[in-house]
């Protein structure tokens, strides 16, 4: 897939601007706070209506406005030239693909895959399990609708069960929800198990091209409980009722899963250098992109928010070795990139995109 | 505009499906454009309010103790399609895929929304089950966690060990979707392809 053009209205600090794309390598150049990350954020919304910077999407419209509009032209591996519109306003978000309204998020997720690299990715190593679960859930939901619906129904079921636990719900009601939660937990467990194993294989291949000799990544799925067998998890929920009632929440299950991410030269959190950690995060993002490509048959677009400049020269070269040549890359930075002739440059100032003379655009 | 107009507008806005603009259009229509229609409308509303009640057997809309469906001697009383709401029943009737009786629960189990077994029309369903007349229950509830849990509850708490065939059609509906918005073809194939509950 390749973005050809993006028009934005009342999005973040942007009143209206047009960003011509279409090349293989685009560099958005600008000082901090000028809006270049907002442009990447808008491109990233095309994947799952999720922002890489915030979980609350209410912050997206421009100050003093309640609605924003994003209009994308893109070239899709399967659908060819495609027109995508995302509107958000008082009545919620609406999405149109080639003039046809998309009524359910499940039909939209993963149709237009992108992968965003940003400095916040270090939280996958340094942050809590919640950060890693979000990564895992998005990665698997993009490639599999069954995962997305199982996850949605599971979380909904847990919320209903938690309410019963808090309000002293009857055993009969708890049984009814537990029996229906368990199969979803089992579906999630098998997708995570298989998906993370697949991702680990890809990550090892990618990391080999980025790293110095003697390093290797570790990526291990760490389930909170083994719930591949729904009956086992159903019984665990049933047996945990007294404890869960005291706390007013479901203590164990896939909503507490985690994965371990580290380098073989010791646990990444303790021993890996800052550069090694950044390298691992970049490798994980490229692995995610390759995973999408392999599972969906659609080449995702790589969106690199200010990270390539932070890599040391060795790892930056490693990035380009590992990055599949067929992927469109759109990067941002405050300084012109070192490998200048590779890029088409667009300057971003005060929420306006201006194509620089060095970057002739189609 | 005027206090009476404003209060009418406020009431109309509370109705489902009416935003501010459509409420305004309706109010203008009734007060200014077609004031004569108001009397008929008021009469129809009062008449409906006084006449329409719940069928004591199945929970459908009725004007006497039993609704037209329960009162229909040609309908099989042994086979019952359980739905959440009256519009679901109407959608299934429209698909003409069902020729027997119904039971309307008026909701589904959802602790988050404060809906427990006491809030649902389970009591008369229990009576019908206990009467021994029923040999098949088809659960046409939404294909979401609450609909599924409600199916489970009916099986475990109401049917229990009785020799009643219980099946679900939820699997045939779009995931997360309900009966009312499914088209006739989907409903028909969902009803025909119903699965025995285990
Ligand atoms: Zn009736």
TrEMBL record, chain A:
Domain (RecF/RecN/SMC N-terminal) spans 5-319
Classify the main location: cytoplasm
Keyword match Zinc: no
Q: Superkingdom of the source?
A: Bacteria
**Keywords in UniProt for this one?**
ATP-binding, Cytoplasm, DNA damage, DNA repair, DNA replication, DNA-binding, Nucleotide-binding, SOS response
Amino acids binding ATP? 30-37
Where does the UniProt annotation locate this protein?
A: Cytoplasm
Function according to Swiss-Prot or TrEMBL: The RecF protein is involved in DNA metabolism; it is required for DNA replication and normal SOS inducibility. RecF binds preferentially to single-stranded, linear DNA. It also seems to bind ATP.
Q: Tell me the protein family, please.
A: Belongs to the RecF family.
* Protein known as: DNA replication and repair protein RecF
Source organism per UniProt:
Thalassobacterium sedimentorum
Q: What is the lineage of its organism?
A: Bacteria, Pseudomonadati, Verrucomicrobiota, Opitutia, Puniceicoccales
- The gene for this chain is recF
Automatic annotation (TrEMBL), chain B:
Ordered alphabetically, the record's keywords are: DNA damage, DNA recombination, DNA repair, Metal-binding, Zinc, Zinc-finger
Listed PROSITE patterns: RECR, TOPRIM
Q: Which Gene3D superfamilies does UniProt cross-reference here?
A: 3.40.1360.10, 6.10.250.240, RecR Domain 1 (1.10.8.420)
Q: Where are the zinc fingers (C4-type)?
A: 55-70
List, for all copies, the residue spans of the domain called Toprim: 78-174
Pfam families found in the cross-reference section: RecR_C, RecR_HhH, RecR_ZnF, Toprim_4
Work out whether the entry's keyword set contains Cytoplasm. no
Which branch of life, at top level? Bacteria
Instruction: State the protein's purpose.
Output: May play a role in DNA repair. It seems to be involved in an RecBC-independent recombinational process of DNA repair. It may act with RecF and RecO.
**Per the similarity annotation, which family is this?**
Belongs to the RecR family.
Name of the featured protein? Recombination protein RecR
């Amino acid at each position: 897939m390749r973005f050809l053009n993006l028009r934005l209205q009342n999005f973040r600090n942007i009143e209206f601007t047009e960003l011509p794309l279409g090349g293989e390598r685009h560099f958005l150049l600008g000082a901090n706070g000028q809006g270049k990350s907002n442009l990447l954020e808008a491109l990233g919304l095309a994947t799952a209506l999720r922002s890489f910077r915030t979980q609350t999407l209410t912050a997206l419209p421009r100050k003093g406005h309640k609605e924003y509009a994003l209009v994308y032209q893109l070239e899709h591996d399967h659908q060819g030239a495609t027109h995508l519109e995302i509107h958000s306003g008082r009545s919620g978000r609406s999405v149109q693909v080639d003039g046809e309204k998309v009524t359910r998020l499940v039909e939209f997720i993963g149709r237009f895959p992108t992968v965003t690299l940003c400095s916040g990715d270090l939280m996958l190593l340094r942050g809590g399990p919640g950060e890693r679960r979000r990564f895992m859930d998005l990665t698997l939901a993009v490639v599999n609708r069954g995962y997305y619906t199982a996850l949605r129904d599971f979380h909904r079921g847990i919320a209903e069960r938690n309410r019963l636990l808090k309000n002293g719900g009857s055993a009969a009601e708890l049984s009814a929800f537990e029996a229906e939660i368990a199969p979803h937990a089992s579906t999630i467990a098998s997708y995570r198990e298989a998906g993370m194993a697949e991702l680990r294989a890809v990550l090892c291949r990618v990391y080999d091209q980025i790293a110095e000799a003697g390093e290797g990544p570790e990526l291990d799925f760490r389930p909170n409980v083994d719930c591949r067998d729904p009956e086992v998890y159903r019984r665990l929920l049933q047996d945990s009722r007294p404890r869960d009632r005291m706390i007013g929440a479901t203590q164990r299950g896939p909503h507490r899963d985690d994965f371990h991410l580290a380098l073989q030269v010791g646990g990444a959190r303790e021993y890996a250098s800052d550069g090694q950690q950044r390298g691992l995060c970049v490798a994980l993002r490229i692995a995610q992109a390759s995973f999408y490509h392999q599972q969906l048959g659609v080449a995702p677009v790589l969106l690199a928010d200010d990270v390539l400049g932070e890599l040391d020269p060795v790892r930056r070269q490693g990035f380009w070795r590992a990055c599949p040549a067929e992927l469109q890359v759109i990067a941002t930075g405050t300084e012109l990139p070192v490998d200048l002739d590779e890029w088409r440059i667009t300057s971003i100032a005060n929420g306006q995109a201006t194509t620089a003379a060095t970057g002739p655009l189609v | 505009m005027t206090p009476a107009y404003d209060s009418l507008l406020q009431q109309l806005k509370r109705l489902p499906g009416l935003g501010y603009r459509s409420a305004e259009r309706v109010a203008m229509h009734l007060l200014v454009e077609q004031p004569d229609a108001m009397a008929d409308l008021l009469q129809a509303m009062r008449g409906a309010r006084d006449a329409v009640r719940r069928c004591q057997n199945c929970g459908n809309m009725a004007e006497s103790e039993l609704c037209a469906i329960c009162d229909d001697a040609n309908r099989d009383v042994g086979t019952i399609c359980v739905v959440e709401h009256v519009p679901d029943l109407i959608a299934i009737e429209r698909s003409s895929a069902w020729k027997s009786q119904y039971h309307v629960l008026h909701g589904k189990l959802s602790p988050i929304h404060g809906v427990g077994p006491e809030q649902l029309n389970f009591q008369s369903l229990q009576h019908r089950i206990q009467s021994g007349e029923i040999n098949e229950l088809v659960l046409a509830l939404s294909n979401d966690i609450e609909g599924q849990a409600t199916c489970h509850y009916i099986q475990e708490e109401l049917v229990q060990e009785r020799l009643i065939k219980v099946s679900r059609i939820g699997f045939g509906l779009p995931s997360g979707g309900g009966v009312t918005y499914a088209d006739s073809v989907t409903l028909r194939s969902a009803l025909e392809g119903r699965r025995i509950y285990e």
